[in-house]
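step: validate -> pass
step: tokenize input -> pass
step: predict -> running
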Amino acid sequence: MGLGEKPPLSLNSRVFIEDRLYFSTVGAVRTEWGWVCIDTPADPLHAAWWRQALEAIAPLPILAVIYTDASRDRVLGTAVLFKERPGLVIAQHQAFDRIKSHGEIGRQQVIDALINLGQSESAEILNQTPLVLPNLTFSDRLVLKFGSPTLILEHVDGASPGQIWVRIPEHNVVFVGDTVTLNAHPNLSEADLERWLEQLQQLQAGRVARHIVPGRGPLVDPHGVSPVADYLKMLLKRVKAIARARRKVELGPLVNEFMAYFPVMEHDRERIQRRIRLAIERLLELYADGKKIKAGKTTTAKAKKKGQA
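step: predict -> pass
step: emit ->
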């Protein structure tokens, strides 16, 4: 991958972004007291490289790691980053619950993915690397001050119940995790599409920050979030139309339609197809018979059942 040939992207020599790693985009903020990392590389060799890259920029300790959600792709490199030193691990409380419940399963899935990518050494190291649970959680908002700059963590529940954004107002930047995924299919397994679209509209309007760091893909401006917004708008339109028609539809062509939005590696094609199909089935169920998504939960309007006991 040639990571050493090019340094991480720098914003004002304080905020650093790396989007060339497997699985997800990661970031780090150089505060006056030390480094704060935002998500972690799932590949342990990449996590070790990221730690060394930050040390080369400024020989400061890593004080904290922030998880923008509970995704297996973001939480597996913490032990490597801390290198047996203590530190804060921060997440929204719902993300903590998911990591605690499904973290080990997620680690095995990443091990399998690394093997499929031919990264057997990384897979072996990850098998021996402990999963680090958050030791500081919050509900709605948390302000971190390790000197300058200030980091503001805010709960947003569109892409997943435990999703957060990390804003750095001093540098007009926000890390949005899987609220924005570029050149990759968004994970819709726990999504509230209507809330998600509202949050994307805030980003597109420039009301949050000028620099947007996606969960997957390169740094963009507010206009750069359009691909995922277009994807979600069309999916919501298709699902609502099918739900209103109250008839069974063959989902294969619909799955293929959405597969075409973003590139998929051949070894991952079947998994992404299955994930899109399951997401459509879930959404159809949520929007059928007066149901809709509300803040990550299903709420049902009172309606008479026709032809049912």
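step: describe -> The longest helix spans residues 93-116.
step: cleanup -> pass
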